[in-house]
Amino acid sequence: MLRLIGLLLLLPFVAPSLFAQAVQYDEARKIWLLTTRQSSYAMGVDANGSLQSLYWGAPLWRLQDLPAVPRRRELSSFDPPEMLSTDEFPAWGGARYFETALKITREDGDRDVVLRYQSHRNLADGVDIELRDIKDRIGVTLRYRIFPDYGVISRSAIVWNRTDKPFVVESAQSATWNLPAGEGYRLSYLTGRWAAETQLVREPIHTGMKVLESRKGHTSHGINPWFAIDASDATEETGRVWFGALAWSGNWRITVEQTPYRQVRVTGGFNTFDFAYPLKPGESLETPDFFAGFSATGFGGASRLLHRFEREQVLPGGAQSRLRPVLYNSWEATTFNVTEAGQKALAEKAAKTGVELFVVDDGWFGQRNNDRAGLGDWFVNPTKFPQGLNGLIESVNKLGMDFGLWVEPEMINANSDLYRAHPDWVMNFPGRPRTELRNQLVLNFARNDVKEYIFGVLDKLATDYNIRYFKWDMNRPFAEPGWPEQAAGEQRELWVRYVRNLYEVIDRLRAKHPKLEIESCSGGGGRVDLGILRRVDEVWTSDNTEAFDRLRIQEGFSQAYAPKIMSAWVTDVPNQNGRSTPLKYRFLVAMQGALGIGANLNRWTPQESDEGAKMIALYKRIRGTVQMGELYRLLSPSSNDVTANQYVSADGKQSVLFAFRHSQQFNTAAPTILLRGLDERAVYRLESIDNQLTEGLQQVSGAYLMRRGLNLNLRGDYDSTAVILERVQ
Ligand code: DGJ
User: Judging by beta carbons within 10 Å of its beta carbon (0-12, 13-18, 19+), is residue 544 exposed, middle or buried?
Assistant: First the structure.
């Protein structure tokens, strides 16, 4: 019998009379078809009771079309049927030699697990499927949830122990995603390092395994937990792209594997490195959510789906959350030299330029005059702030701005009162070195006493002061992740419990202080992932604020993450790398995300202050489009001397084109830029912010803009411009 469950979903790509349910289930053949507007995903139980992937790609609407799960044959004694399978959630057991999603060791040393379908529960927005070992009451509950408007499916797994003996989980992955059988796929991922995050890499997938991971305890600058796979023929706007992102801010791992049988599969979840999570009888372990989707409109289509999904389904407050305010942050201006008088002077200047949120960065607490002392002592430094923070906060509020404060709650300097009182609170292996990085140690957030203490400190700050915003920093990875108070067999739970406690502290703070907003920072973009994004409002993209470098960092960032959360500051020149770019260029680069100012406003000339105020006013006119609109990456900074990005507002009434030229050679004109995402039949009024439109156009059709395109007079080094399009008919 065929059962149709769930939401009625109109699919614009099929005849209007045809429709598909979000969840369709064929009881007789035990096949599920999960459908969103942009994708379908199917899996079913084979004759042996094993759950197999059947389909992932563009939407299907007819469950009956799907054939039963094929029976796999042994190719040779070296190529058993398991190796040809498309297991939805392969456990290590039987003859499986590829990356598995579950591996355990029982008390008696037995490590074999073979999972079979046990039961399921269909829901309006997904299905839970229980798989159980053929012998023991050990198993997993696989959770599938669909987001019909976003092309996205989430998967996670709960590993459970219903036996009367403990076992240790050595690998718990959230999902295995099987791609259509084939070869010639390409993998895109984001890599980098501190101050050079999220650079886009695109490379062929060959037979073997590519490991994307963090072993650092946080998400890491090195690789971000996002992937995209195409059949080597996708472009920004065309071609099939399968993509995914893991919602976890600790040690994570995504493997991309092509077997000799032309099977490409992606497996992701907790990093297996140093992983050992004991489960006593009755206990369970839940993996992070692994979100994945499909786009038939190239990499641009994939990122637009993810952006909208994040804005509406992931971020706190979702679609109702407010537009990001223009902020000022004092870090690059004053570093640790923060004083009430100095911050007040900056605040007055910031307010005059149109800043809405004034953030005091590092240096306001304890003996924090440099990075060698004070972390952990979250008490206002009385020399720097004789009236506590209230003197400053009241001035900031009177100037019409909200107040924000930097904190780094997970860290401690050895030179701090907190460390002197609680040396056991840092992660450590007794008698072994305690490696310091930036002179700091990592608190063991897996400990509940540490968690409660830090919650208390932050709660008190948020209660005592009118704080709208915490910039939550984390400036080093883990080392010596020991938890000596815990039994030896339970110490490695730290990797998971640390992150869960971190999430809990943020969740509780937000629940108690509903207006509080949080920025996730980890020395720049070291903690950007869908797990932290469920609980913060924006992220600090990179400590590299140099505008030309930022174009590359932002290009990569935008593959996976929405411009709304991409905090981007205008800072002084020459920048860290010695480069100087014009103020207009720096503003236009930063205006492509959540605009902030990090410059020393005391040094701005009256002309610069005036230009800054004009640019901030302009940003406020277009920020709805930038933050909530659709992004089209028109020309990439990786392959062109001209970079162009276009944003189109959700209602299609406004669009903004940003264009940058880093170094013109041979007096060559900039290429004609073809716009996208417009209504070809509509007419748009063009407003160049600085008369750089070469042809004096004022009103033109969407068809002209997308087919004939715009010529911009970008010349010399670090030239830039923006054109605002308003739909007039
Ligand atoms: C690293 C951050 O990324 C910077 O913006 C700044 O907050 C410093 N930490 C302060 O120590």
Answer: buried
